[in-house]
Structures are given as structure tokens and as C-alpha cells.
Hints:
Distance between the termini: 13 Å
Strand order of the largest sheet: 6-5-4-3-2-1-14
Number of helices: 9
Strand content: 25-35%
Structural class: alpha/beta
Shape: globular
Oligomer: single chain
Amino acid sequence: MKLTFLGTGTSFGVPVIGCDCPTCSSDDPRDRRTRHAALLTLKAGRLLVDTPPELRIQLLTAGVDRVDAVWFTHTHADHVHGIDDLRIFSLKSRATLPILVGPGVAAEMSARFPYIFDPAISVPSGTSKPELRFVSFDPDAPVRILGREVVPLELPHGPMTVWGFRVGSLGYVTDAKELRPRVLDALRGVDVLVLNALWWGNPHPTHFNVEEAVEAAGLVGARRTYLTHLTHRLRHAELLEALPPGIEPAYDGLTVDLGVSSETAS
């Protein structure tokens, strides 16, 4: 099992338009962060996490030619507004692409993208649209995806819920503000943990800052923790040097090999 970070930035991305701060003007490629997405490569296929506006560019850069299912963490624009880029995959496979969503998400996405999900809307002959199929999971039970058991993780993100997950030895959390006891129990024993972290200091109402992410990582106790959803207030090299052992910032294009054990873990 492998995890590839396709995008590690927040809703603004890095560099931020019109900003000349040290991160935005950095020549370190790790400081260039497109908006959040990841790809989990399993034996039975590839699970895409979110569809940000830069999805096409991310997939081309990573050399991805196939996606077999999509996990949506939540419906904020920076996580879903690249959904049309899924069109190529249903075209190539001549089949609907399963997209996994939490409670209420299917209705919201159907209202936002009626040209995709309203069966009464047909596209003109000779054109195409993404052919997608909702798979709504039970928050209280694992769901089977591409031959693997995936445990949904319910996470608070202001007034909305974000859905992280655990699969094998990987725990994946983004856009969270807290790891509640039930989530901590579900993450117990993971080898690799992904957490969001905006910046140092100045707590945010709906996201972890770096200090909170480090504290949460300590509660989970994974051997390796990667921080994602990073703002331009954080330079990669400086953050890497300041973080405690076992915790490091992710960057666009980073691939983490979770090893053979992660394929057999339940």
C-alpha cells in the first residue's frame, strides 16, 4: 500500500495570489502547495481522496492514469470543485466511478452539481460528463473499498463533519479540530498518521494549528506522522527542523510506502 500526497495546501494554495512572503516567494519546490488531495494505491486499485480545483494538474504530475474509487472528506470548495476531472476515468472504463460519501453529502453534491447527478439532465450527443455513483457509508461501521476494510472517522470541522478514515496501518485526518475518544480508539496502533496543521500559534476555530496537531499526534502514537493542509505561514524546511522526531511536513508529490504489513492489517 502506498500513499501519495497530491496536494498539501489549504483553500488558498501556496503561493497565495499577490503574496510575496518568504514561503510564497521560496524556490524550494516543497513550498509550492496545491489544494488538498491524496491517492492511496492498494492491490485492488487506487482510491482518490478529494477532488480539488487542481486535480487534473496533480494527476498529470503524479503520472496517474487510473482512479477506481473516490473518498470525499467533505464538501468545501477546495475539496470538491475539481469533480469534473473525474470524467476521463468513467469515459475510459465505460463504467460508473464509485464515490464514497458520509451522511447528507450525496444530497448536497447532487444539488451543487445537477448536471452530473440529476438523471433528468442529459448532455448533448458527442459530449460527456462524469459518470459517478454514490456509495453512502454507515458512520458506525467499516466499509469495503477495493478489497480493503476502511473505517470512517467522524471529525469536527466547525459546524460540519469531515470524514477521515483508517485503512490498515494508515490513519488519515484532514480539516479537523479535535480527535474525539472514539476516533482515538479507532486510530490506536496505526503506523502512519496524516493530520492537518495550518500554522504555529493563533488557534483556528475549525482546524488544528501545528501545536494542536503535534499534541494529537502524541495521543495517537504513530511511528510516523505527516502534516498536511499547510498554509503559506509555514516554510517546509523551517517546519521540518522545528518539529519533534517522528513528525514531518508532507509536500506535493511525496509518496509514503506503508509496506507489506499494511496490506494484511485489518
